[in-house]
Amino acid sequence: MSERKPTYEELEVQLSRAKEALSLQSAITTNMAEGVCLIRAHDGTIVYANPTFEKMFGYAPGEIIGKHVSVINAPTEKSPEEKVKEIDKIDVWRGEVYNVNKEGTPFWCYASISMFEHPVYGKVQVAVHIDITERKR
């Protein structure tokens, strides 16, 4: 017995609902108080940053896309590649990170970083940053 195929109208409703869900997700990410970025794990390339992240790090809209994650990391004992491997082993990492903005000014953030498989970019890290510089003083 064959399954009934959805009608054109049913497909239109499904598409409309999918568009609404995508629009809602986009609005949430765009308007978050936290900075969010997506980093391709295999090469450390930033593939997405929300407006809060761009502002936090002093970049114009879209300017940070395609740059290596090392442009936002203040120098530490561990390289960005070592950090990626560390997070890959545990899936989720939370803690304080010392970052640097576009002008070279260092500042502290609390970050939550998790890994997942993205259909286009492969294994990625999603990093949520909160500027805690004032708390650290």
Strand order, largest beta sheet = 2-1-5-4-3
The whole-angstrom Rg is 18 Å
The first-level CATH class name: Alpha Beta
* Termini separation: 70 Å
Low-confidence stretches: none
Q: Say what the CATH topology is.
A: Beta-Lactamase
Largest sheet, if any?
5 strands, antiparallel
CATH architecture identity: 2-Layer Sandwich
What general outline do the C-alpha atoms trace? elongated
Helix content: 25-40%
Q: Average the pLDDT over all residues and give the rounded result.
A: 91
Number of DSSP E strands: 5
H/E topology pattern = HEEHHEEEH
Strand residues, percent: 25-35%
Helix tally equals 4
Q: Assign the structural class, choosing from mainly alpha, mainly beta, alpha/beta, alpha+beta, or little secondary structure.
A: alpha+beta
CATH superfamily: PAS domain
Number of domains: 1
